[in-house]
Amino acid sequence: MRNAKKLIAATAALATLTSLAACGSDSEGGDSAAYQGDANKAELVFWGWDSGNTMKDLIADFEKANPGITVKFNNTGTANDTSTALTNAIAAGKGAPDVVMLEDPTVTQFAVTEGLIDLTQYGAADLKDDYAAGPWNKLQYNGKPYALPIDSGPEVFFYNKAVFDKAGVDGEAIKTWDDYYEAAKKVRAIGSYMTNLAGSTNDYQPFTAQAWQAGAQPWKVDGENITINMTKDEGMKRYIDFQQKLIDEDLVDTKTQNWSDDWNHELNDGTLASLTIGAWMPINLMNGAPDQAGNWRVAQLPQWKEGEEVSAEDGGSALAITAQSKQQAAAYKFVEYLTHGEGADTMADTGTFPSLKRLLTSDSFTDPNKESNKKTNDFFGGQNVNEVLAEAAQRPVTEFQYLPYNPFAQSAYGDYISKAYATKEQTLEQAMENYGKALAEHGEQQGYTVTLK
């Protein structure tokens, strides 16, 4: 009953995408043993997005290597559209694809509602040590893998060396968040900002990543039981106190939202001097801040304690198999090919930031003479960018969970947290407390047992 209640509530909150659901399976799902099918013969339906325009070639390569299996790819457009369509198909009991691409934070919500299968039965758990810890850990539910990572997004520190030089800041010397704070004061003194945070919905991922790195556990999920602790958790206190100091001293631009036109303008004219963001950012800087070519650099995240090497994940996507699929064995072959086999190599060669350790440590990935690397390295003043990013991806990460109703958590974040940044109506602690209450109330409406601290 609880699963049904969660599905009905989730569906009511999302728009219906019947055209996609019609392109999925007619099965209502069932025991996984009865739904394995023939591992070597199947007609698979795959939902996802294709930002790199490489999926057609990847599927052709897979089909050539597996002549008994065909894959029909339905481009869902965006990650949100995919989640919406899958939610509707699960609620309807039919129409889901065999394989689905999801953003990492949404995997838990579909695992909880039994819309995805545990991949342990196909040997996925044995692949754990092959992946960087960050992306792997995000895809577990009750200690079992429900998806395999396509890519990863370890957080790193990007900074504009020209702006730092003008402010008298040595970017390479910023090793701790205390160093970062002192640098922010110098950057502000010349009229620029160290970074921006408006508390918008677009800031949700940076929030989870930075709180994660601070050791925060704002929520914990244990099956049907959820604990919300937005202000009393030690890591959250550390994160909130630091951010409030930046707000109070006008060291962070609280008006400019991530991914807006103004954001790109400020990165391009030097108003914003740095970003802590995922390792997928270089191409976005190259496109959004072309006037700063040669000025940007990348470094590891500042640490809360000097000498530590703690990282966090900001973004990422994965492949999962739906419980409605009657061709799960063949579907797993396809998933493993794209995330662990030759398909993963192809995606890395075409710009996807890898999650596999063998790719992160390969000579090809960090080769400064590789054409794709040369272009990026030139923009970053000759720095070997992938060398820094590969190190970040393999740094240890603390445990972190996402709520099983992550889309609500993300949309509500802007409603509540913007009051501490953009409008300054509340302190960040007050805003986080109210945000926590909203998360707890929503969780109870979804049928969970929620403890609010």
Secondary-structure blueprint:
Blueprint: H1 2-12, H2 18-21, E1 42-48, H3 55-65, E2 69-75, H4 79-92, E3 99-103, H5 107-112, H6 133-138, E4 140-141, E5 144-145, E6 148-149, E7 155-160, H7 161-167, H8 177-189, E8 195-196, H9 204-213, E9 219-222, E10 225-228, H10 234-248, E11 252-253, H11 261-269, E12 274-278, H12 282-288, E13 296-299, E14 317-321, H13 328-339, H14 342-349, H15 357-360, H16 363-366, H17 371-379, H18 385-393, H19 406-417, H20 428-445, E15 449-452
Parallel strand pairs: 1-2, 1-3, 8-11, 10-15
Antiparallel strand pairs: 3-14, 4-5, 6-14, 7-12, 7-13, 9-10
Helix pairs in contact: 1-4, 7-8, 19-20
Count of runs of 4 or more consecutive helical residues = 20
What is the number of independent domains? 2
- For the biggest β-sheet, the strand order reads 2-1-3-14-6
Strand tally: 15
**Based on CA inertia axes, which overall geometry fits?**
globular
Strand content: 5-15%
* Subunit arrangement of the protein: single chain
The parts where pLDDT drops under 50 for at least 5 residues are 1-22
Family: Belongs to the bacterial solute-binding protein 1 family.
Pfam family, one: SBP_bac_1
Protein name: Sugar ABC transporter substrate-binding protein
InterPro entries: Bact_solute-bd_prot1 (IPR050490), SBP (IPR006059), SBP_1_CS (IPR006061)
